[in-house]
From TrEMBL:
Pathway: Cofactor biosynthesis; coenzyme A biosynthesis; CoA from (R)-pantothenate: step 3/5; Cofactor biosynthesis; coenzyme A biosynthesis; CoA from (R)-pantothenate: step 2/5
MF annotations from Gene Ontology: FMN binding; metal ion binding; phosphopantothenate--cysteine ligase activity; phosphopantothenoylcysteine decarboxylase activity
Organism expressing this protein natively: Motiliproteus coralliicola
Family per record: In the N-terminal section; belongs to the HFCD (homo-oligomeric flavin containing Cys decarboxylase) superfamily. In the C-terminal section; belongs to the PPC synthetase family.
A Gene Ontology biological process term: coenzyme A biosynthetic process
Top-level taxon: Bacteria
Cofactor(s) annotated in UniProt: FMN; Mg(2+)
Cellular component GO terms, alphabetical: phosphopantothenoylcysteine decarboxylase complex
The record's free-text note on cofactor binding: Binds 1 FMN per subunit.
Name of the protein this chain belongs to: Coenzyme A biosynthesis bifunctional protein CoaBC
EC number: 4.1.1.36, 6.3.2.5
Domain DNA/pantothenate metabolism flavoprotein C-terminal: 6-214
Catalytic reaction list: N-[(R)-4-phosphopantothenoyl]-L-cysteine + H(+) = (R)-4'-phosphopantetheine + CO2; (R)-4'-phosphopantothenate + L-cysteine + CTP = N-[(R)-4-phosphopantothenoyl]-L-cysteine + CMP + diphosphate + H(+)
């Protein structure tokens, strides 16, 4: 993309997994590495944006010129996102947020006294849907990580969460999606869909930033 594609824009990106505590030493999480979200943050910064990266636990170095906000749980990620809302023109949700968390966190390490145990889970807040329904709504882009009916489910998320764009990610395919260095996606909007073939997350992020910037401009 041309340098300056996103100059003057403030961009907030969520990345990585969240961790939902069970007790002081255990948690529920997923296989997100943060690579996709960090690559997007790097590409947006290279395109001239001021970038805040809200990241769950990931072992990646923050990209240059990107402000990193580290969080653990979905609730912390939501709090961090809401804090940014006043100064955010574009919000991209690449994080794999845990949909549920344990209903209560045990104060002490749970002992293995029983043959079976049950953990009761309650629903986490939906961060990207909360952002998209805010009065000071930024242009809001979500991902959809799906293992079947990828486009259909992505369209469902576009409508239900009131998003401007959804990046549909088939996470059942080997070599792309969670934790791999490459990805392939379909960018879904209300009136269109566009396939981007498998490539490095780094290159894909640059293509996505270009596509998003084209959509962002008419609104400004
Ligand atoms: O991190 P990597 O290893 O590089 O892997 C990249 C990725 C596969 C994690 C990424 O490309 C991706 O698809 N991210 C979204 C993962 C996900 O959890 O998708 P979902 O279909 O469950 O959620 C839909 C959208 O809602 C996502 O934008 C998600 O960030 C958001 N969400 C979901 C639940 C929730 N409580 N709050 C949210 O904001």
């Amino acid at each position: 993309f041309e340098q300056g594609t996103l100059s003057g824009q403030q961009v907030c990106i969520t990345a990585g997994p969240t961790r939902e505590a069970i007790d002081p030493v255990r948690y529920i999480s997923n296989h997100s590495s943060g690579k996709m979200g960090y690559a997007l943050a790097e590409a947006a910064a290279e395109a001239g944006a001021k970038v805040t990266l809200i990241s769950g636990p990931a072992s990646l170095a923050p990209p240059p010129r990107v402000e990193l906000v580290r969080v653990d749980s979905a609730q912390e990620m939501l709090d961090a996102a809401e804090k940014q809302l006043g100064n955010c023109d574009l919000f991209i949700a690449a994080a794999a947020v845990a949909d549920y968390r344990p209903a209560s966190v045990a104060e002490q390490k749970i002992k293995k006294n029983n043959e079976q145990m049950t953990i009761e889970l309650v629903k986490n807040p939906d961060i990207v849907a909360t952002v998209a329904s805010h009065p000071q709504r930024p242009f809001t882009v979500g991902f959809a990580a799906e293992t079947e009916k990828v486009i259909e489910h992505a369209r469902g998320k576009l409508e239900r969460k009131k998003l401007d764009l959804v990046i549909a990610n088939d996470v059942a395919q080997p070599g792309i999606g969670f934790n791999s260095d490459e990805n392939a996606v379909t960018v879904v909007s209300a009136d269109d869909q566009q396939r981007i073939d498998q490539t490095s997350k780094h290159k894909l992020a640059r293509t996505l930033v270009e596509l998003i910037a084209q959509r962002l401009k008419p609104n400004n």
